[in-house]
Amino acid sequence: MSLPPGFLDELRTRSSLSQVVGRKVMWDNRKSNQGKGDMWAPCPFHHEKTASFHVDDRKGYYYCFGCHAKGDAISFVRETENVSFIEAVEILAREAGMEVPKQDPRAQEKADRRTQLAEVTEMAVRWFRLQLQTGAAGEARDYLAQRGLSEAALERWEIGFAPDSWQGLWDALKGKGVEDDLILGAGLAKPSAKGGKPYDTFRGRIMFPIRDARGRAIAFGGRAMDPNDNAKYLNSPETELFDKGRSLYNVREARTAAGKGQPLLVAEGYMDVIALVEAGFEAAVAPLGTAITESQLQMLWRIAPEPIITLDGDTAGQRAAMRLVDLALPQLEAGQSLRFAVMPEGQDPDDVLKTQGAGAVQKLLDAAMPMVRLLWQRETEGKVFDSPERKAALDKALREKITLIKDPSIRGHYGQEIKDLRWHLFRPAAKSRGQQGARRVWGNAAPQAPMPSTKASVLVTDTEGRSAQHLREAVILAACFQCPEVVEDFESGLEQMICADPAHRGLRDILLRHADDGAAALREKVSAVLGPDALENLTAQRHVAITPCIRNPGNREMAQMTVAEELAKLEAMRGLDAEIAEAVEDLSGVPDEGVTWRLSEAARAADRARRTGQEDKAEYEVGDNGARISRDERSALDALLGTIKYEKKKGHGR
C-alpha cells in the first residue's frame, strides 16, 4: 500500500514510543529519566536480567545493546504483535486518533472481506460454546472433565462442541443473515457434491478456536468424539484468513508471557498447550497438525531466541524433532537456536503433568539439550563404529549437516562440539579394545603368584622398553605441535598411543580436540590446561630437540614423515610385546628358574633390537599379527619363541 507523503511522519510524531513499548516491558525506574524521555528496560526480544533496551522518546527510536534490535513505533508493533506493516500502521493510527488513508478499491475490498470472515468465525465460536452446555454434549463434557479441565479453563480457552448434525451451524448462521459465501469462505461448511445444501465442516467434535497474533478468531481445531473416526483431530481448511503453516495455537498469549521472561515451549497439540498453560507454563504454543514450517520457526524466533521443543517420548516425536533440526540448521544465527526437552517414553507433556506434576516438567525443561546434541544423537544412537569405514561414514554425515549452517562462527562452534563428542565416543571404545586385547593375551584366569626370581626378570622389570616408548611418544607429540596440520592424517594412531605419562596423555588429548585451531591457539590451550612450561619441557629433551622436523618448524612433509615413522615403530613394539605375551601364556604352569633365565636372555635380545641405532636403517616386514617389525626385532623374537617352544616341549616330555 502506498501512503501519502508525510502521513507516517505525522503518525510517528503523534505516537509516544514509550507508551507503545511500555505495554510490553517493565521500565527500570532507577535507570530511566521519564522527564527526558530516556527510558530503559529488559529487552522484550531476548531474555535478560539487566536493562539494556533503550527508548529515546524524543527521537522515537529504540535500540537494544544486547541483541541489537532497533527501530521505531511501527517496527516495534510489527515485531511484538506479529502483524504486517499496514496492520501496524492501522493499530497505531487508531491509538493516535488518526484515519488511515483509503487503500485502492481492490485492496480495500480484500481487507473488508477478511474482516467479515473474522466476524463470521467469531459468531461460530459463540455458537460452539453454547452447544457444549446442551444435552448432546454430555459425553464431551465428561471427556474434558477426565482430562482435568475446570469450568474456568473451558471458559478461558473458549472450548465448544459441534453437534453430530449435518447443518447445525449452517442453519444457525443463516438464521442470523450470514451469506452463503462468507460461511463457505470461513471454512465452516463445505458444498455438497450432490448439489444439495452445504454441510458443516465439523460434526461430533470438541472445538478449539484458533486465534491469530491480533486475537482474531481465524479457524478451529476439532477433536472427534467417535474413537473410530479416521481423523482424530481436524483443522479448518485453509482460507483467506487461515494458513496453518503460518499460524500457531495460543501465539498471542504466549508472546505476552515470553515477554515477561517465561520460556517459550512448543508442544504437539491443543491439549498439551492447555495443560502446560494451566500448570503455569504460559508461553506454550503448538503447530496446527503439521510439522513445524519455516514460517512458524521464524515466528517462534521473533517471540524468543531459544524456544524449547517438547518432544513426545515416542518414535513419531523423535522423527519430528529430527526434521526440525534439518529445517533450522541453515537459519541459525548468533543467540538464535532451539533446545529439546524429551518426555519419558510413551508420554507427552500432559501425561507428565498428570502423573508427576509441574516440578517434573520443569526438570525436563532445565535439562533440555541443545540442538547440536540432538544432531549427534541422531547420527550415533543405536550404531556401532567398530571400523574405519563406519567412523568415516559418521564423519561424512555430520560434515554434511554442519555445512548447512551459513553463519561461519556458529559453524565453527558446531564443528568443535562435534569433535568433542566424537572424542568421548571413541575414547571408551579404544580403552575397551585395549581391555579386550589384554583378555585375549592373558586369558580370564586369575594370575598365579610369580616366583621371587621371576619378579626380578627382565620380562617384569623391563623399564628400557617403556623408556623407548616414552621417547617415541615425545617425538610424535612435539612434531604434531610444531605442525598441527598433520594431526588429521594420524588421528587413529594418536588415539591408540598408550601414553603412560600423564603429561603425554594431556598433550595428546589437546592435540586431538583442538588441532584445527592452529599452532598459536594450541600453545595457549596447553598453557591454560597443563601449565606454561609443558611444551617447553617436551621440546627441550635432547632426543626431541635434535629431531629434524623440530629443527625445521613448519615443514609439513618432514613432520608427516617423522610422525609416520615413529608411529610405525610404536606399532611394531606393540606387536612384539603381544607375540611374546601370547607365547608365554602357552606355557603350562609357572616357569622354573631355567626357563626364567632363558626368557630373560631372549627378552634382553629383543630389547637390544628395539634400542639399536641400526633399527632406523632396517627393513621392515609384516609380523603374524599384522604389525610392522624390523628384521632385527624379528630375529630376537624368533630366538625367544624358540626358547619357549623348547621349554614347553620339554615340559610335556616330563
UniProtKB/TrEMBL annotation:
InterPro entries: DNA_primase_core_N_sf (IPR037068), DNA_primase_DnaG (IPR006295), DNA_primase_Znf_CHC2 (IPR036977), DnaG_bac (IPR030846), DNAG_N (IPR013264), DnaG_primase (IPR050219), TOPRIM_DnaG_bac (IPR034151), TOPRIM_dom (IPR006171). A zinc finger (CHC2-type) spans 43-67. Residues 262-346 form the Toprim domain. Residues 604-620 have a biased composition (Basic and acidic residues). One of its GO terms (biological process) is DNA replication, synthesis of primer. Keywords: DNA replication, DNA-binding, DNA-directed RNA polymerase, Magnesium, Metal-binding, Nucleotidyltransferase, Primosome, Transcription, Transferase, Zinc, Zinc-finger. GO terms for cellular component: cytoplasm; DNA-directed RNA polymerase complex; primosome complex. Its EC number is 2.7.7.101. It comes from the Bacteria. It catalyses: ssDNA + n NTP = ssDNA/pppN(pN)n-1 hybrid + (n-1) diphosphate. Binds 1 zinc ion per monomer. Residues 604-628 are annotated as: Disordered. Its cofactor is Zn(2+). PROSITE patterns: TOPRIM. GO terms for molecular function: DNA binding; DNA-directed RNA polymerase activity; zinc ion binding. Gene3D superfamilies: 3.40.1360.10, DNA primase, catalytic core, N-terminal domain, Zinc finger, CHC2-type domain. The keyword DNA-binding applies. Monomer. Interacts with DnaB. NCBIfam families: dnaG. Contains an N-terminal zinc-binding domain, a central core domain that contains the primase activity, and a C-terminal DnaB-binding domain. Belongs to the DnaG primase family. RNA polymerase that catalyzes the synthesis of short RNA molecules used as primers for DNA polymerase during DNA replication. This is DNA primase. It comes from Sulfitobacter aestuariivivens. The lineage of its organism: Bacteria, Pseudomonadati, Pseudomonadota, Alphaproteobacteria, Rhodobacterales.
